[in-house]
Amino acid sequence: xxxxxxxxxxxxxxxxxxxxxxxxxxxxxxxxxxxxxxxxxxxxxxxxxxxxxxxxxxxxxxxxxxxxxxxxxxxxxxxxxxxxxxxxxxxxxxxxxxxxxxxxxxxxxxxxxxxxxxxxxxxxxxxxxxxxxxxxxxxxxxxxxxxxxxxxxxxxxxxxxxxxxxxxxxxxxxxxxxxxxxxxxxxxxxxxxxxxxxxxxxxxxxxxxxxxxxxxxxxxxxxxxxxxxxxxxxxxxxxxxxxxxxxxxxxxxxxxxxxxxxxxxxxxxxxxxxxxxxxxxxxxxxxxxxxxxxxxxxxxxxxxxxxxxxxxxxxxxxxxxxxxxxxxxxxxxxxxxxxxxxxxxxxxxxxxxxxxxxxxxxxxx
Length: 365
Fold this sequence. Notes:
It holds the Pfam family LptF_LptG. This protein is of the alpha+beta class.
């Protein structure tokens, strides 16, 4: 029995079915609650547009739900792991399995197999559905939930750099010299990256070269004084061709398409840290589901009557949520260039894999 990684076929199917049902139940509960909370803020904005009604609200739900599923599926696997293992422990099923000669790894093997299948489905779901929902929803939000013109080139949350300076905008519309920015902010940074002043404007258009800010207002950080400027031309190194290359949303591109975009940026000598980190995280993100049974395994073992089952469940939950915190922090550091992209995407996964395995071996094996 110890030489087999999986227990019997019957026990494997029983544990896998138990686990997957709880994953789906927890995921359904999370998505329903979060979608309801999201609609409290979004419904008013959608219905404020003339002509919008129930169909547009349902359209928003259809675009938002895939995002929620993608983001909270790993959390669902973690919570389902704890519920499953605590239930098995309370019913003395873990004790029975260990008495039959199964090791801790063999007890967890069906859960790990199920989590691996969930990771594969999550990757395919992200590629086929989530990326398209991201692109459509961001364009719709940039148009303030009004009808999106065909081939409008609408992009939301634009972030561009011109040397040490930064230009941000809530939306970008059009292509080439017809590009227009809305709700623009131009940050001027002193040596060392410190922002010395910033300029806000309602709109920006191409000035050949540079971008003409309309109704501009400057705020000096050092003196805390505000000055009305009217019109101001900034970002003369930001050509329409460069913006077309810069205004790429990694979340809206498929795995292979993002790889081709990274290659194009590299060929043009552009910064690709954020996109490379996102590309690697397309793999390590779904694989985080594989970590959850390992991190939550501390709740499976130890006698339920010892009174420490609740403490073990809390430890398992703390390990799982610590992974998500570290993963998000590392990904943010990778996007800003603080970590190499590969390290930013994979270091949290490998660290917590070793941590979970160490805890399991030291306590149960």
